[in-house]
Amino acid sequence: MKLARVTYDLQVNVGSSKAWEILSHYGDVAEHHSIVIDSKLLSENPHGVGADRWCQLPDRIQVWERIVEWNEGSSYTYEVYKWKNFPLKSMFTTFRVESLGSEKARLSQVVDFRLSPGFLTGLMTGRLRKGVRDTLLAYKHVMETGERDASLKVLRKTYKQI
After folding, report:
1. d(C-alpha 80, C-alpha 89), whole Å
2. If you compute the radius of gyration of the chain from its CA atoms, what whole number of angstroms results?
């Protein structure tokens, strides 16, 4: 099955270790990520391979996600293995942190996905790209300001030039 790919990256004005500290809070993503309405850790381990969570997203979308690759301090990939209220067939998401100096880092997100029926994949690519951008803006905001739960409207206005 061929998967479509959406990528986005941006610079954050914090060191890579601080960026990773926040990004690696996989199990309590709703605490750090304003786009996730609610999340619950389903596994005993809060991060690392096998960490498992459930997330409630806007539009009543629910996803169950499990980490399939973990590179401490730099990246992780999770698979969406179950979903509700979204026409998904397959999805893998990778988050990466790269140092750009003592107080700068690059955050990137890569999403490989396929929707069902297949023609929706092309139609929804723009919407998913916007969602990836929003995700990274939410992380940037909490990393740089410490403020959690900023609305999407505020994030988009604040970081309009990114």
Report:
1. 9
2. 15
How crowded is the C-beta side of 84, counted as CA atoms within 13 Å?
7
Tell which residue, 111, 107, 108, 49, has the closest CA to residue 80. Answer: 111
Amino acid 18 reads: K
4: tokens are 């479509």
Length of the chain, please?
162
For the chain, 162 residues long, the average pLDDT of each consecutive 10-residue run is: 94 97 88 84 94 94 97 98 95 97 96 94 91 92 87 83 77
Task: Classify 138 as helix, strand or coil.
Answer: helix
Q: Do 109 and 136 touch, CB atoms closer than 8 A?
A: yes
Omega before 117 cis (within 30°)? Answer: yes
Q: Rounded distance, CA 127 to CA 150, Å? A: 20
Residue 34 and residue 152 in contact, taking contact as beta carbons nearer than 8 Å: yes
CB 97 within 8 A of CB 109: no
CA trace torsion 78, 83, 85, 89 (10° rounding): 80
Q: At which residue do the structure tokens 């997203």 appear?
A: 57
Q: What distance in Å separates the CA atoms of residue 113 and residue 129, rounded to the nearest whole number?
A: 11
Alpha-carbon span 12 to 151, nearest angstrom:
19
